[in-house]
Design brief:
- By secondary structure, this protein is an alpha/beta fold.
- The chain has a domain at about 235-345.
- Helices cover about 45% and strands about 20% of the residues.
- It has helices at about 20-35, 55-60, 75-85, 105-115, 180-185, 195-205, 235-250, 255-275, 280-285, 290-305, 310-320, 325-335, 340-345, and strands at about 10-20, 40-45, 65-70, 90-95, 100, 120-130, 135, 140, 150, 175-180, 210-220.
- The strands form 2 sheets. Strands 1, 2, 3, 4, 5, 6, 7, 10 and 11 form a 9-stranded mixed beta sheet that branches. The protein has a two-stranded antiparallel ribbon with strand order 8-9.
- Helix 7 crosses helix 11 (about 310-320).
- The termini are far apart.
Length: about 350
């Protein structure tokens, strides 16, 4: 990089959306202060926090953070859009508040991005904050009904994911995006509110012909689902609702028609997981009554169907502007597919 560049023209804008995450912010912001790559700005969008987050940032990090204070929780998608609107960088780094980044995180992400102008997304090697030899995410895999899961999640890191390879799309927890791509997409779809946003951006970018790659030496430590909880009703609702929107918005028609088979298969595996105490569904069921589980499931479908007409309109626009063929997109889904067993019986 040209060392003569000045900080009022950042190469990277790091956007952090925060909602009642005061207890996480010190680890996150302090690690950004230690970055060896210096040409970046930090934009923190606070979603109406009531836990002292704003006062904490203003008191301890006002020298490095541009703070945007919202009066209410507008969600991850809109929060990011608001932050990106203020960004000056040619690249946008999305970072969850419940993370700590390695000192070379931005340097390695930018180096990877700049190898090819067709790269639109670069994913990090995300490890568990508390068990640092355990993998959280190395890019996303997708199931045939639109739900997705991090590649290698909960595996012990034995360098099996240390190759720089193409991925379907990176985790929005900690990733770098070309702003030009985000502008072409039109930003995050605010209908999603939270969860599935990175899937939406990722698949949209792939339809526009952009590549997504994984950078194994861009290391991040993550306190998984720190804000909403790993097995919370809120998360369960948005994950199930938004995966339906992903399915309708992006998948080929024949995939949509056969998707109920894969959903039923997944649900049966999850019921088996509940009975044998395996997988995220088992832990969610143990923390919630059967009635509340059913209520969340049906309310997510009801909410999904209410928004389906808007999703179909957006699908038509995406397909009209796509730069790869449906066949090429099918190949991407096939190459980065996850099995029903893995999606259902692992946490």
């Amino acid at each position: 990089m040209d060392e003569s560049k000045v900080m009022d023209l950042p190469i990277v804008s790091v956007v952090i959306v925060n909602w009642n995450g005061r207890k996480y912010l010190e680890d996150c912001l302090s690690s950004l202060k230690e970055q060896t790559f210096r040409f970046f700005e930090v934009i923190l969008v606070d979603n109406g926090s009531l836990d002292g987050s704003v006062d904490f940032v203003q008191k301890y990090y006002s020298d490095m953070v541009f703070l945007i204070k919202l009066s209410e929780n507008m969600g991850f998608a809109k929060g990011n859009n608001i932050g990106i609107e203020k960004a000056k960088g040619k690249y946008i780094a999305l970072l969850n508040n419940d993370t700590e980044v390695d000192k070379n995180w931005l340097k390695n992400l930018v180096s990877s991005m700049e190898t090819d102008e067709n790269i639109g997304m670069v994913g990090s090697k995300i490890l568990n904050f508390y068990y640092r030899d355990q993998i959280d995410n190395t890019g996303h895999l997708i199931y045939q009904d639109g739900i997705n899961r991090g590649r290698g999640r909960l595996e012990i890191d034995c360098k099996q994911f240390d190759d720089k390879i193409d991925i379907l799309f990176p985790s929005g927890c900690a990733s770098l995006y070309r702003k030009k791509m985000l502008d072409e997409i039109g930003g995050f779809d605010e209908m999603f509110f939270a969860y599935g946003d990175d899937t939406d951006i990722g698949l949209h970018g792939r339809y526009l012909g952009y590549k997504a790659i994984y950078c194994p030496n861009a290391i991040v430590f993550h306190k998984y689902s720190g804000t909403t909880g790993s097995y919370s009703p809120i998360k369960a609702f948005y994950v199930e609702r938004n995966r339906l929107w992903i399915l309708i918005k992006y998948f080929p028609i024949e995939y949509i028609l056969i998707s109920p088979y894969f959903t039923i298969k997944r649900l049966l595996f999850q019921l088996y997981g509940m009975a044998t105490k395996q997988g995220a569904a088992s832990k969610f069921a143990s923390d919630n009554s059967f009635f509340s589980v059913m209520k969340i499931f049906f309310s997510s479908y009801l909410s999904s169907f209410k928004g389906i007409s808007n999703i179909i309109k957006k699908r038509k626009i995406i397909l009209r502007k796509r730069k790869i063929s449906i066949g090429e997109f099918k190949m991407l889904l096939k190459e980065h597919r996850i099995s029903c067993k893995e999606i259902s019986l692992k946490d």
